[in-house]
Amino acid sequence: MSDAYLPVGPGLGLEENFLSLDDILMSQEKLPGRAESTLPRLAFALGQEAGTGDSIPEGSKLEIPLWLAKGLHDSKRRTISVELPKIYKEAWRTVFSADANVVDLHKMGPYYYRFGSQLLNFDNPENPEIAQTMLETFISRFRRIMDSSQNAYNEDTSALVARLDELERVLFQAGQKGLNDFQCWEKGQASQITASSLVQNYGKRKFTDMDG
């Protein structure tokens, strides 16, 4: 009998974790771009109508999955150039700076933080501003998300959760689970309070680093 599938957490840095279903889905998100040279045998893969054979001509506009864009991107050879999705551009960064809590992140990009961190792989002069905006957005929205997870117990939270990016949804669920576990313990329905998996995993990584 095979063991039950245990979810694997996503990578939260510049590299994806390809054992994570969330990261596999995130890497399928597309980037606008342009072919800086002829791309042979890629027209069919990218859903392009090739004029000659299966090659994509130089100068063609593209919609490239993140995983392929990272593979093709080479700052020295200039195979492709990648443009920023609109939610990471200056106009939207201004909106986030004004009030990040009003943005429906799931509608604009369900993997806003993880996808944005992957954009830092590409040579873009706006990378520092993108990274700073993501950090400030996370800090601004985090407190409200956790407050809501603690104050909306046994209530319909579907409208609230619908506006969150996938990482924020995980945090919201962790907050509600922590509250539920605590209330069960208070009522004598649980024998002990256990550390969350996030804390346990952090501790394991820390001890591994110390051993190395």
Automatic annotation (TrEMBL):
Subcellular location: Nucleus
One annotated Gene Ontology cellular component of this protein: GINS complex
Residue ranges of every copy of the GINS subunit domain listed in the record: 89-185
Gene3D superfamilies cross-referenced by the UniProt entry: 1.20.58.2050
Keyword Nucleus: yes
Domain DNA replication complex GINS protein PSF3 N-terminal: 20-72
Database matches in CDD domains: GINS_A_psf3 (cd11713), GINS_B_Psf3 (cd21693)
Record family assignment: Belongs to the GINS3/PSF3 family.
Protein name, per record: DNA replication complex GINS protein PSF3
Organism annotation: Herpetotheres cachinnans (Laughing falcon)
Gene: Gins3
